[in-house]
Design a protein that fits this description.
238 residues; alpha+beta; 8 strands; 27% helix
Length: 238
Amino acid sequence: MRKQIALAASILLFSASCGEAPREKKTSEKSENSVVQEKEVDTLSQTHEEQEEDPFVLTEENAIDFFFDYQKGLKENKVKITTSLGNFTVQLYDNVPYHKANFIYLTRQGYFDNTMFHRVVKDFIIQGGNADNVETPRKRKKIGRYLLPPDTRKGYKHHRGTLSMPSSEINNPHMLASPYEFFIVVTKPGSYHLDGEYTPFGKVISGMDVVDLINQQAVDDGDWPMRNIYIEKAEVVQ
């Protein structure tokens, strides 16, 4: 099943090249003992380099398997989000495992810290997880480039206070989710035209007044708040 889900995702590959700096040649004028010592040091250096591994990066090929393993035994399901206008707490649905695991993982990686609510549509949604700073794309590059499959058949609807995940803006016929961003519905009683298109994976359980306050801020023509609204910190809580 996981392989079928993974094949549904568009494959986006990272490529990287690396080279080893040239070593300085040994001179014949050095003593035999000195040469032996340098060879021993050189051997230890090579062994150390062989033991070093490339940093783990999520990709379209490994993301599903990674989050399948990550969510095993994952008991935490609440995240507190502190913003420049106050804080609120969301509870994640246990039976939407990939989206829950992704949100917990990114929170623990510190990804959301210092991002913004970059899209605010009055009486509809607030959307966060992006920013116009240089730090955010660097974090994304370090964590990896991947998408998540939709999971819309668990019966959750886009009620007011629902936490959901937008789809990627790339050529995306399968509505694969953009894992770094999220939106919260503020419409009363909800925005049910979104059902079946996007994946609800949690809900606001406290601080909905802060969500409403964010939603009432003035925005420009592109729905970006005129005054930046920061996510100062996101943290997993009991």
